Amino acid sequence: MLEKLDLTKTLEKDEYKEKMLKLAPQIGKLQRECKDLGIPIMIAFEGYDAAGKGVQISELIKALDPRGFEVHAVKTETKEESMHPFLWRFWTKMPAKGRIAIYDSSWYRKVLIDRFDKRTKKNELAKAYDSICAFEEMLTADGMVLIKIFLTIDKKEQKKRFKKLLSSKETAWRVGEDDKKRNKEFEEYQAINEEMLLRTDTEYAPWNIVEAVDKRFATAKIYAVVAKILEEKVAAVKEQKEAAKQAAARMAQTPCAPEQETAGHDRRMGETTLSKVDLSLAYTKEEYKERLSELQKRIEKLHGELYRRRIPVVLGFEGWDAGGKGGAIKRLTEKMDPRGYVVHPTASPNDIERQHHYLWRFWTDMPKAGHVTIFDRTWYGRVMVERIEGFCTKQEWQRAYKEINSMERDLSDAGTIVLKFWMQIDKDEQERRFKARQENPEKQWKITDEDWRNREKWDQYEEAVNEMLIRTSTPYAPWVVVEGNNKYYARIKVLETVVNAIEERLKD
Hints:
Strand order of the largest sheet: 2-3-1-4-5
CATH class of the largest domain: Alpha Beta
Oligomer: single chain
Shape: globular
Structural class: alpha/beta
Distance between the termini: 43 Å
């Protein structure tokens, strides 16, 4: 494919100036419109060494307000980055709504240079491609503009540019032995690039191939590509906003239809995941103390082994209000080294978090190798509270199952132990705990009016939870339903599950 391109294309100086006089102001205007409309933009530059990625990025940003973009040079992973899933460093460099992030090389390094240099193993390649495509699909589905630009030159032109760079002390540092090797084995590296282009050229994130032998031609083409994509996105968002405005106006003038019975009252004639839970399971206080002591000693020892073996752990806790999440987390961590774990209580997203993809705030808190991160409430809020309270659209929460599974798969592929706990209690037990909290001055802070309001939607939440458990419990990130009416039993089950999972991993 790449060898068939016409690399002789050029643009004369006068024609170039004429094009840029129109394109540069257009891109500046589109940047302002994207900012006003809250459209985030990612522009990824890939291509051969010496094809001009740095030069073309410098040319592109001349048309942009420097307060609205950031350029990321993607090189070999740092030590910190290597201790996370490979997409972590790109989630942490993601632009907020209305801003632009430009990448000099990108997440494709994993399947290009790292593959050529044998840092990406053969058995990792298919998973890396799956992760990249899932990453791009979830971002674009959420409104991200993703522009992928591939700069191409031939072997002869590359060698010529290397020679010019090496001829000067000021630029010779830019050509390393790895660059020379890729030129020497150009055909092999070209085949790797062609495979990448074919496997990741999608409807939601297509590649734009730029013939880069002539600098002016390449610059003008990049400007035209960026302008066209941003113009189409701005028009689409404006159209969506206008349609939403008109729909809201029509609804305001239309009498409300009688409220229909929710599916939760008649849909499940048989058993559900939660209905099968045996909430009578219990331990006596003596049994609890004995088991707790033994399990905490084991977790203390295992925690040190996790650090030594550099195995990360992610534990997510969900459940009914007053379901016992806090008590289970406290007993789990009491004997663990506080330097090796962190507990994140998840609240409603703040203003900064709302400016990003909903998974962004969780990716930024994922543990590095050898550490444990515990989430008290998690990314599953998307398919529970946000779904039920109308904080996201039906389309958004329905696609979230796939997006969440993809994120957890990335964690697992990077060696992370992922466990998710649903703390299950019945409605009567919840009411008893609520009243006990109200009557105890030291625990009154735990109960709010919102907790009582949520009880009124118990059936809706139960339906959402059952669907969540079915659609997102996987071999690599299983859900564990914890029978929680008896707090002693619940805490022991959580500890036993974590201990068993770690011990099983350490056998590998």
